[in-house]
Amino acid sequence: xxxxxxxxxxxxxSPPVAGEGEANVAAAPVLSISxxxxxxxxxxxxxxxxxxxxxxxxxxxxxxxxxxxxxPAGLRFDTAxxxxxxxxxxxxxxxxxxxxxxxxxxxxxxxxxxxxxxxRAATVACARxxxxxxxxxxxxxxxxxxxxxxSADDSWxxxxxxxxxxxxxxxxxxxxxxxxxxxSAIGADDAAGNGNEDNH
Length: 200
Fold this sequence. Notes:
By secondary structure, the chain is of the alpha+beta class. It contains three helices and eleven strands; from the N terminus they run βαββββββββββαα.
């Protein structure tokens, strides 16, 4: 599982202080976000279930937030709970979060067969105050894509190649030891036989 979350620089800055005769400027929402998925790799036909978690770390209500999740190349969006709006290469939701509250969304995508040889599929989730506004906070998840045929065996062999190599060397060492022991035993028997003949 690969999941990252970060706050934009605007959120970390101190909110502006209104001077005399100036209107108060609303501070940007203080949020955190995460994208979780138990799978680190997948093949064609596998379903990827993501959990998006958006938290309000501030002390005021946050309303009309636009939460989006990208649908990476090689994946097909299937369902979401709660339901979202799928358009182009992404899915979006409009959410309200009270202070210290959170919104949790589950989305499901299917890995498609592809000849492009794409090594990974990365999805990005972001929250913003408006469709065209810059993101306030984003998170991502990346999974390795593997081929369908023989992928499980190849993947296992690749992950355990050092153990396999060690096993081969161990067997070779045992075989060499057995050969040497047998050779020594045969040599000792020959020497004993020659000694008996000399005595006669």
